[in-house]
Amino acid sequence: MILQKLLGLTLLGAGWVLWLLVGLSVLSVAVALERGAYFFRRRIGSKFPELMRLCDAGKLAAASELASGESLEAEVVRAAESAAPSGREAVSMTTAASVEKKRIEYEQRLSILGTLGNNAPFIGLFGTVLGIIARDAPLGPLTGAPGARFDPLKLSWIGTPTLETNICISMDRAKVKTFKDLQENELIIGNTGVGTGTYSYPKALNGIFGTKFKLISGFPSSTDVFLAMERNEVDGICESLDSVISKRPDWIATKKVNVLFYAGAKPDIDLHGAPFIVDLARNAEEKQALEFLYAGQGIGRPFVAPPDLPADRLKMLRDAFTATMKDPEFVADVTKQKLDLEPEDGEHLEALIRKIYATPKSVVEKIGELIK
């Protein structure tokens, strides 16, 4: 119930959050000024060295006279002087009690600053920031992914700097060299865990086409799978094309690996004649299932904003994103870092999300069951 109410707040837009943050900022400044004035009035300043000398010499009466006012040092010295006739142990206990009492007074309201400082960034998440989400995250509410308590249809889609292409590859030594081989022979592949494309895609394809992927889990990253492939521990992986090219740039070019097939938003990539997976569908239902399975590839690496943004604000963000994608300095930096740049705007992503969520329930349930 509490979680639902908090999630409901995120749908109210950013205005209320900004006013809340302004109010909290004013409160923080007020507390800081009040505490600053409190400390200033109670400072002992240049008297401290002489006060310590008198205390070390046991001249508590003189020290008490010197440390006039409401400072911590003055309170402690006066407490020590009052307890002196009762002996050293009484002085120790009395001064300790005095220090603790003053500590509480000095730290009053400081917890407010600590609490605000720690939580203000999280408050800001309620409608005041942009997010970059994983490509398959928008599918979560459809497939019943744990924690997917949001509605992608209500988010404000800003754009994506690139689209994704996923490929399944096998080492040249493997018996499986084509998609047809994969339907007849087992291919041992590594994956990086449930919920990732390295696991979900091949597992679903085993159910749709009867392919013979044998999935080996336990790899922290695709880099670890690549190393295992080179060590003859596994024979393949289903991974994004840009990941394979960036981490093993010679594999595809020199045919050290076989590209069994590819999937994504672009059906016309030349990968040594490898087929586009959707083209292998044997009927309309399989085509829908494959398009839904790989829908995240078309979403890419999207930037999203809070729901219900005013139209002019959403347009401003989308225009700024599009301009950034075309900025010469940005493009040069992307090129220098050998990153992929194939941007799509927010309107495209919004239309794609609506298409995904129009997928028949039977297809969604089938894919959801296959990738568990």
Summarize the structure.
The protein has helices at residues 2-10, 15-41, 48-56, 60-66, 72-83, 88-106, 110-124, 140-143, 179-182, 197-209, 222-230, 241-247, 249-253, 284-293, 295-299, 311-326, 328-336, 346-356, 361-370; strands at 131-132, 156-160, 165-171, 187-190, 213-216, 236-240, 257-264, 303-305, 344-345. It has 372 residues and is an alpha+beta fold.
Q: What this model shows, in words?
A:
By secondary structure, the chain is an alpha+beta fold. The protein has 2 domains: 1-127, no CATH class; 131-370, D-Maltodextrin-Binding Protein, domain 2 (3-Layer(aba) Sandwich). The chain is 54% helix and 11% strand. The chain contains 19 helices and 9 strands. The longest helix has 27 residues, at 15-41. The two termini are 28 Å apart.
